[in-house]
Structure formats: structure tokens, C-alpha cells
Amino acid sequence: MLQFASRRSPVVCTRGCAATSQPLATDAGLDILKKGGNAADAAVAMAAVLSLTEPFSTGLGGDCNVLFYDGITKKVYGLNGSGRSPQALTLDLLKKEGFVETNPLPLCHANLVTVPGAAAGWCDTIRLFGSKKLSLGEILQPAIELAERGFPIAEIAAFHWNRGASILQSPGNQHGKDLLLQGRSPKCGQIFKNPLLAQTFKRLRIWELPPNGQGITALMALNMLENFNIKEMGHNSANYIHLLTEVLKLSFADSFWFCTDPAKVKVPLEELLSKHYSKQRSELINMQRINSQSIHGNPCGTGGDTVYFTAVDAEGSACSFTNSNYSNFGTGLVPEGCGFALQNRGAGFSLSPEHPNCLAPGKRPYHTIIPALATSAATGQFVCSFGVMGGFMQPQGHVQVLLNMLEFGMNPQEALDAPRFCVECAKSDGTWKLSLEEGISQSATQDLIARGHNVHWPVCGHDRSLFGRGQIITKGPWWESQRALVAEDSQKVLWAGSDPRADGCAIGF
Q1: Do residues 247 and 285 make contact, with C-beta atoms less than 8 angstroms apart?
Q2: Does the model's pTM come out above 0.85?
Q3: Continuous segment of H or E residues that includes residue 434
């Protein structure tokens, strides 16, 4: 039984703050803030780490939605990072396969994958709202390092990983093992590595056109340069120029040989861009002299569910971010060599032709992920960045935690700690169920039953995940009842809380 007996104080700080459902992700966001990045930069760094540490909830195979508050202009911007249905997927096609409103597709079906929007959403977030002080590669570096060296699995993450492991272990899921440890879900404290996801992150630095263009030359060069400490050499020093020259020579030698029309000749792209091959090629470089015979190599030869997180920066900008696979591991389908599962957001469509939300080509489905921001109606000043992840619990959680602060004077951590309730409607018969978290009194429960509610009480242990997992960062203690007595300096203080129903934390500096 998972116990909830501990108490947390709210985090208070002044220069910046990050809050997620996983400490390693929070730490990554804070590091980006300390390096001069802004809230948007930090949010993308946290999104990447969370896709590694909580792949059952989120990842590049999912979608994202973003709200960004610009601390200078006091404007709020939104970014819809949800994908559209495939152009060839129609109701008639599904009907021929036997799927209709009364017989919907199973959640693991590939036709439920809408075009994942997370990767584009991350890039757009940096392009539109980022500080421009850090490259996407630098922002993704914390996630890349964790994926390569491994990280210990947290307690609640281990539970949810195990709960969804069966979909990864199914006989038809060829690459589901990439998100398992020796065929099983990792346990709390075990080290998990995801080198395939690390490589996928590295491919997000830079896009190049495939052969028959020569963009692959740049990618091979970048791969080789990862094996050297470039910064230590100094910009445009002899060592620096020599190294880049030798690297480019080797890259061109390969591209001149292998780069051709892939419709006519098989181009070994995966092998040319592998880290193993780039390491082999980089070992040909002599830092003391040129390589007078730069010839092409032989890369095919033998041998050797949802997360919510938020950040606020020193300029007062805030990023409220939700990234999601929808249900546990989404479809559970893992693309070869990528290290992430594909979402099943298509389950949000209706298969009834009369329904406004019915499936149609290139259409976005009903979407549950909703990050939130609050600003002052009078001044436009940032007040609060918050969210509660978890399917249809999200709007309910928003209302409950916000009222905890507005009406009941709770600080952000208290607002998240307080017991919550969840109202659910059964699709089968339209009946409603009211679930009450442990901590809501028995007398209140009995009263609700007497009023005709179909009550489930008490919900405790790991079942508390029903009530979502939230994060809050606010500016100033505006929830205090005697606001007139609040000193002006305290209005500059950031307050933050992190949901005890997850493994995470808020950290500030």
C-alpha cells in the first residue's frame, strides 16, 4: 500500500522555479534556467527528461499543448501541439474493418495514432518563445546524458510502468522491449538506459534533406565531433580548425561515395549515422598531422498517460506545458530504433457520422490536455502557472486546486496536498460515478450517498492516480486573506508546489 503520510513545505524563491512530476526533470529545467535559458527553454528540457523517465505517460510519440506568458510584454501565447488524423483514414475504411461506434478500435490499434505533435511542438516552443541563448541541442542535453548513462526508476513511476508493461510485451509488439529491462518493467531503484531515445534526441538538433542531397555530410561531421572537447580548443584555434577540416574530409569521402538516388540504390543511412561508425571514423584523425588518404569507410562491414510541468524565469515569463501519450504507453507501438511509444489520441474521435467530433481525414480529435495560466485582469501581471494532468480529471483538478487557493487561503503545496474528488461518466450506460480520495470524511461521504450519488470511497494508495498529478508556481502570496498587510517585496517571491501523488518536486533558486 502506498502511504501518503509525509508533509511538504511550499518552495519559495526569487530568480526562477521549475516543477514536474519527476525530480530529475525538475533539476534539468532548473539547470537550463541557471544557464540563461528562459521558462520555455526549461519546459522543453523537462519535457525531454520526462519522456525518458515516464515513457508510459509522455514522449515524442505523443502530443503537447503550451501556454507561454511573456514577462516583458505581459501577453499570453498558446501553442497547439496536437496532431491530426491521417489523410487516408476515413469512417468508411474503419467500417470495412468492422469498427463502428458500438465496436470501437482497441486502444492498442495503430489506426488510433494521430500524427504525433510533440517533437514539432518542442521545436516551435523554442523557436517562438525561447530565449535564443541556448540551442535545441543544449536544451536536450540533460535528457541525452540521462538516457545514455541511465537513471534509477522512482517508486510511483515503477508502478505505472509495470501497469502498462503488458502492452509492450504482447507478441505482435516487435520493439516494445526497447522500453523494458530484460523483458520486464523496471523496478524502483533499478537503473534504466534508453540509448535509442538519446539518438532520437540528437537527431532533433538539426534537420537535413536525405540523399540524393548532401545534407548527410553535416550530420556525419557532427557525430564525429561529439568525440572531442571542442570548447577546450578555443574558437578558430589551430586545433579547432584542424579538427573540423579532418572531420569534414572524412564526411565528404563517405557522402561522395554513398550519397545517391535512394530510389535506385540502397543508401545505408542508419549505418552511416550510427554512433559506433562515427566513433570508428573519428579514430582515424591525427591531431598532429593531416590524413592524406581520406577515403570512404564501410559502415555495413563486420566487427566492432500525460505529464504536466511548469517553469518561471527571472524575467517573469512563465511556461505552462502538458505532454501526453493519452492512455498508458499510448498504443504501446514502438517505432524501430526510436525509443518511444506512439500515442492513441485517435481514441478521442467519435465513430458516429452524425457526431461533430467524428473521425475525418486531417482532423484533430477531442483532446484532454490543458495547461493553465492565471493573470491579473486589472494589470495583466502573471499570477499563477498550474495544471493537473490526468485525462478527464484535468478540468476538475484545475477548478479544485485553484479554489483551494482563492477561496480557502491555501498555499500552492497545500492546494495540491488537499484530497480531491473525480466525477466520471460511464460510456456504456451514461451513469455517473463520484470517486472520493482518502481524507474526505466519512460523514461527507454518507451525506453524498444519501443524496443519490454513486460514491466510491475511500480511494487510496496507487489508485490516487485517478485524481491527477499537478504542479503550481505562483508569484507572490496572493491567496493570503490579509493581502493589504503583504509587504511589497514579497510580491517578487515565487511560491511553488508539487503533487504528492507523483514522484516529483518543485525546485527554485
Answers
A1: yes
A2: no
A3: strand 432-437
Contact 372, 386 (CB under 8 A): yes
Tell me the pLDDT band of 485, cut-offs 50, 70 and 90.
very low
Name the band, by pLDDT with cuts 50, 70 and 90, for residue 302. very low
C-alpha 344/C-alpha 115 separation (Å) is 10
C-alpha–C-alpha distance, residues 255 and 216, integer Å: 7
Among the listed residues 19, 107, 50, the one whose alpha carbon sits nearest the alpha carbon of residue 318: 19
Q: Is residue 21 within 8 Å of residue 471, measured between CB atoms?
A: yes
Exposure on the CB side of residue 70, measured as CA atoms within 13 A? 12
What is the spatial distance between Cα 416 and Cα 464, in angstroms, rounded to a whole number? 13
Could you count the other beta carbons within 10 Å of the beta carbon of residue 432? Answer: 10
pLDDT in tens, 139-149: 999 999 999 99
Those residues whose C-beta lies under 8 Å from the C-beta of residue 422, and which sit 6 or more positions away, are 393, 396, 434, 435, 466, 467
Q: Which of 330, 372, 394, 319 is nearest to 59 (CA)?
A: 330
Radius of gyration of the chain (CA): 25
